[in-house]
Amino acid sequence: MSLSQGRPYLAIPGPSTMPDRVLNAMHRAAPNIYEGALIEMTRSLYPRLRRLADTAAHVAIYIANGHGAWEAANANMFSRGDRALVAATGRFGIGWADSARRMGVEVEMIDFGLSSPADPARIEAALRADTDRRVRAVLVTHVDTATSVRNDVAAIRAAIDAAGHPALLAVDCIASLGCDAFHMDAWGVDVMVSASQKGLMTPPGLGFVWFSDRARAAARQSDLVTPYWSWEPRAEGAEFYQFFCGTAPTHHLFGLDEALTMIAEEGLDHVWARHATLARAVWAAFDAWGRGGDIALNIADPARRAHAVTAARIGGGGAGRLRKWLEVEAGVTLGIGLGMALPSEPAYQDFLRVAHMGHVNAHMTLGVLATMEAGMRALGIPHGTDGLAAAAAVVAGR
Predict the structure, then answer these.
(1) What is the β-pairing status of strands 168-172 and 135-141?
(2) What letter does residue 330 receive in the DSSP assignment?
């Protein structure tokens, strides 16, 4: 007998759970796009987006998903034949590299595998070897959504500086923004990209690029930038339509306005602390389950794990069977093990991801873990039996 009736729960790493307040803010008639409240509200988004990234940098908003934000950053940073140094720690680092390559950028990729953070020493060595200074930018994901590794952005900036290299530092914060602490200016980031559908709790459709004065100056030499992707008018348009290269994404903007209001009401430090606590609860459950079965977190070092999403392994195809059981029997959807193995390989069914990003609280996260434990019992998947108790102890002792 299925018990999936009722409101389904999406525990995938984007789109994240949408707050009712955000959905209600979007549920309205189309506004006047020429003057009035929409324009004033939209202008108020930019200083709030800067506070979210802890920066004084410029901000551009695109009608796009995260891949579009990659392309926007690439188009402004590079010219054809420029070189990018990419530190890949999962599928999305590789994806950003592929995006740049297909746009005519020469890519040098350091692949750190699927379970390790980027090593700043190797980045420094690669930049020292670039004696003709062809590398225009270093690209890195703060959190790779596929592997759940969290990279030390400040250490990578220090490596660039130690090499005496003029490369820009560009960081993908699509999975981490609003979940993990991020300090764009203090960490020396020149370009940062994100999107609306994860920690910002708004439906997919908005991409964001923050860029420093240094990046802005460098972009004036780019021959890849096109009218749509140019960040100049989007940051300082004289007319409202220029901020979006045409009609504004009106209802997404209403949703984003409400999401940023919710973050401000909670306080960004508390938002970060809440995500950290819920992440530790998930890790505690997996650690306990792993004491009785072939179950393990993908990232061994807790200091390098994301607070937004957790990637894990349940061997023998257990992850795939558990994901299916949860969706059919309990109304819970977990993330697939993206990039950990090919769909055609048996190992593909060994991986899953649990998202705890955005509009989540203790009962949501504990509810997911409880149904996971129930599913492992129902399916006969060997596991330690005190996973839920371990997670509850983290929440109780926060």
Answers:
(1) parallel
(2) I
Would you call the peptide bond into 302 cis, given omega within 30 degrees of 0 as the criterion?
Answer: no
Angle value at C-alpha 310, between 371 and 187, nearest 5 degrees: 150
C-alpha to C-alpha distance for 51 and 162, rounded to whole angstroms:
29
β-partners of residue 111 are: 88
Residue written as tokens 């508390």? Answer: 270
User: What's at 81, amino acid-wise?
Assistant: G
- In this prediction the pTM is 0.96
Half-sphere exposure of 248 (CA within 13 A, CB side): 26
Q: Which domains does the chain have, with CATH numbers?
A: 9-16+267-396 (3.90.1150.10), 31-264 (3.40.640.10)
Q: How far apart are CA 140 and CA 36, in angstroms?
A: 40
Is the sign of the CA dihedral 317, 322, 323, 328 positive or negative?
positive
Tens digits of per-residue pLDDT, 4-30? 888 889 999 999 999 999 999 999 999
- Residue 265's CB is within 10 A of a number of other CB atoms, namely 8
How does pLDDT run across 167-188, given as a tens digit for each residue? 999 999 999 999 999 999 999 9
- The residues near 137 (Cβ < 8 Å, ≥ 6 apart) are 77, 78, 84, 85, 167, 168, 169, 170, 190, 191
How far apart, in whole angstroms, are the C-alpha atoms of residue 103 and residue 398? 47
